[in-house]
Amino acid sequence: MEHVNGSSQKEIRVWCDGCYDMVHFGHANSLRQAKALGHKLIVGIHNDADISKNKGPPVFTQEERYKMVRGIKWVDEVVEDAPYVTTLETLDKYDCDFCVHGDDITLTAEGVDTYHLVKKADRYKEVSRTAGVSTTDLVGRMLLMTRNHFKQGSSKLGQDHSARSPWTGCSQFLPTTQKIIQFSDGKPPKPTDKIVYVAGAFDLFHVGHLDFLEKAKSNGDYLIVGLHTDPVVNQYKGGNYPIMNLHERVLSVLACKYVNEVVIGAPYSVTKDLMEHFNVDLVCHGQTPIATDVGNIDPYAVPKQMGKFILIDSGNTITTEDIVERIIRHRLEFEDRNTKKEKKEIEVFEAMQRVKLAEKSG
């Protein structure tokens, strides 16, 4: 087995764990960084009961969360029902060399760092958290559902309370070409590949999207996903959508193991030029209603005329609107969760700062 730096040694197995609720590109980015530190990435996921006790109610069920993490391209194995506090016994049980987590903090209901045991044993490594996104922030966006929340520079982005925590306080996500390259496979289709094309908003990437993309990919070899711009999504979904902007949606879709390529800002109507440019063999759409384009035009008229269009049924009926409904229905619980989580984080952060000051003055 060749090591990541080129030297020959045993396979390095990396452990990550967490809630992975509303899996977003921030989670995916931390898992990407963790995978780069070894050969195999094993991800432990906490159950609903432990999350509710220590953090507050999860948005997704444990079964949905297990499936979502399995769908991330850098994940090799998923361990269900992982303990909330990471122990050396857990690392040894799954033959993992060390544990990796972001540079934020995770606390139990009692305010204890969930990684204190592996840190003490020097079997812990840290990666940078992706600034500008967190589950807390996304929940906040849905609680607000403001009409302009996806516009750059919106001062209210995600702030359902005055976010002051250094870990989940809101900061604007700044997309770069480097980040897209890191998430992309960068592999063109082979001449013999059957190319499948799908398009949509893919807002708040969820298990409904995942099942649909898996089904679409099964109809060919190379899957291209066209992502509509924010104004286009806004036009057919309504004034409150999309919740995630185009750049955020691009990374969320690229992190999916079934996706080979993304068209950023794809036209709403699938054109002949697009079909020819990408050598598309088949265009798929799910069971959701298809809104007509400007002028009452069927956006799939061209691939239908070419005999290259099919409707597919993924067997999953969950939509982005359903996820938002979950949040709105339990609004008070989630607002309370966000407030408590932030308060706890601020207390720990301030205590850490006091220790640092004491060490300096000492």
UniProtKB/TrEMBL annotation:
SUPFAM superfamilies registered for this protein in UniProt: Nucleotidylyl transferase
EC number: 2.7.7.14
TM helices/strands, residue ranges: none
Protein family according to the UniProt entry: Belongs to the cytidylyltransferase family.
UniProt-recorded name of the protein: ethanolamine-phosphate cytidylyltransferase
Top-level lineage group: Eukaryota
Any one GO molecular function term: ethanolamine-phosphate cytidylyltransferase activity
Record domain Cytidyltransferase-like: where: 15-139, 198-292
Originating organism: Aedes aegypti (Yellowfever mosquito)
GO cellular component, one term: cytoplasm
GO biological process, any: phosphatidylethanolamine biosynthetic process
Enzyme class: transferase
